[in-house]
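Workshop exercise sheet. Pairs work together: one partner reads the sequence aloud, the other fills in the structure field after running the prediction. Swap roles for the next sheet.
Pair: D.N. / O.F.
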Amino acid sequence: MHLEAAEEPCGYLQGLQATMEYKLMTDVNPEELELLLEHGWRRFGATYFRPVCASCRECVSLRVPVARFAPSKSQRRALRSCSGLRVNVRAPVADEERFALYLAWHRMREETRGWKTSCETLENYAETFCFPHPCAREFDYFDGERLVGVGFVDETPRAASSVYFFYDPEWSGRSLGSASVLFEVAWAGDRGRDHLYLGYRVQGCASTAYKARYRPHELLHGSVPLDMPACWEPG
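Structure field:
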């Protein structure tokens, strides 16, 4: 189902309005999802979206070519800081442990970055992150037996897409967020995938601007229909 483009407060840049294009689809196969990713679409649950703002082009889709990626000095430090973690990849699951970790992480973001208060329920969490999908993967990060981070990744025939990541606030000083991207790049490489999609880079938004630090990377140029070739250029 294709929904009318909706204007709403911008989730990235304060004081601006954004126009988002939505599709509600419950039966998307891996090849179809890959085509959507190539054209700048993102997914939460059964909802697919991309920005189509008429007067703003700040949201730019970014992807990392896995084989050519070279971590920076600070990214290598982040990886060493988290090297003792055990990472388990599985199908997404919604339970009280993961939901409590999500809420604790979100409260930290509310305090440090002024995010709106989360009104999520476990049911909403499940619909957003654990909707049944053939591409959906969950990355669980364990310190011993303690769950300290959860990431969601979509895997398509030629790519992987980093969907969302949250972690225990006690790990804020260990750069687990940065390290999680490196874990995902390595996993995508081991799986023979060409790219890791990181979503939208918005230079004026601290929550997304960090993505440009993963180099080399490619940026989607413009917004075209799914039946036209997408144009990716070096960033």
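Discussion prompt: The longest strand covers residues 146-155. What would you look at next?
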